[in-house]
Design brief:
Layout (H helix, E strand, L loop, with lengths): L2 H15 L4 H9 L9 H17 E5 L8 E4 L4 E11 L8 E8 L5 E7 L3 E5 L2 E11 L2 E5 L6 E5 L14 E7 L2 E6 L3 E9 L12 E6 L4 E5 L7 E5 L4 E7 L5
Antiparallel strand pairs: 1-6, 2-3, 2-6, 3-4, 4-5, 7-8, 7-10, 8-9, 10-11, 12-13, 12-15, 13-14, 15-16
Helix pairs in contact: 1-2, 1-3, 2-3
Length: 251
């Protein structure tokens, strides 16, 4: 069948089936559509070549770029995530500029960018999936999807906060064209204190802090009253103590 007809059929099916993302559209497409009589494999072919790219790529003006978005550079050869942006006012008839601080999603190298405000930028929409952490085997992390039970192996270097990860915890895996791009933890995690110096009895009224070791081996700075057995909530982006979730002495 002519490629254009496949594309048109896929668009019709997409409009009928689409809800959230491709993980919802694909099963619906495979069941067929009343608008066409194309076989399921033809739907998949059309979907992978047209609908996915429409969903995953979006052109935006540079002044509409926001923190956290992923930008495609060099025709998709490099993906960078925006960490900070600023707008500089132009002089006279000159247009202003958008200064962007970004980080390569694969190498984590900082990438400074500069665009004119009206420049069109290719913003990539990543496919996000929640996985459960199983175990570590040397430099490899093993994750499992809680519904499909699909297992994924991840190089330990992909996760900067690996020492805040414990077995059974959830992690967010981001994919681009079926390739794993990044792994991140929730904003906060709850971890038990395994080592902590006792609180000084002559402590002053001023806040006192000390180093404590968590069950995963990570060390953080926590208030002096934290003791072994306490469960601390930790911010994974700053590695800072947020609050005490529970105490070993509480019933």
């Amino acid at each position: 069948m002519h490629r254009r007809r496949l594309q048109q059929a896929a668009v019709i099916a997409w409009k009928q089936c689409w809800s959230v993302g491709p993980e919802h559209a694909v099963p619906c497409l495979s069941q067929g559509s009343t608008a066409t009589n194309l076989a399921a494999d033809e739907y998949y072919y059309a979907f992978n070549n047209t609908i996915w790219r429409r969903w995953a790529h979006q052109k935006k003006q540079a002044n509409d770029i926001r923190t956290g978005q992923v930008i495609s550079l060099q025709g998709g050869k490099q993906l960078v995530r925006v960490t900070k942006y600023a707008y500089t006012q132009g002089q006279g008839r000159q247009l202003g500029s958008v200064l962007i601080e970004a980080k390569d999603v694969s190498t984590h190298v900082n990438v400074p960018l500069r665009f004119k405000t009206k420049d069109m930028v290719d913003v990539v929409r990543m496919e996000e999936k929640k996985y459960q952490y199983l175990y570590r085997e040397e430099d490899t992390l093993h994750f499992m999807h809680p519904e499909s039970f699909e297992q994924v192996t991840v190089d330990v270097n992909m996760l900067d906060t690996v020492d805040l990860l414990k077995e059974g915890d959830d992690a967010l895996l981001e994919f681009y064209e079926n390739t794993l791009i990044s792994v991140s933890l929730p904003q906060t995690v709850s971890l038990m204190v395994s080592e902590a110096a006792p609180q000084m009895k002559n402590a002053t009224a001023a806040p006192q802090y000390k180093k404590v070791r968590l069950e995963t081996g990570a060390e953080i700075t926590a208030p002096a009253y934290i003791k072994v057995g306490d469960v601390c909530i930790v911010d994974t982006s700053t590695r800072e103590f947020v609050k005490r979730a529970s105490s070993s002495s509480s019933s």
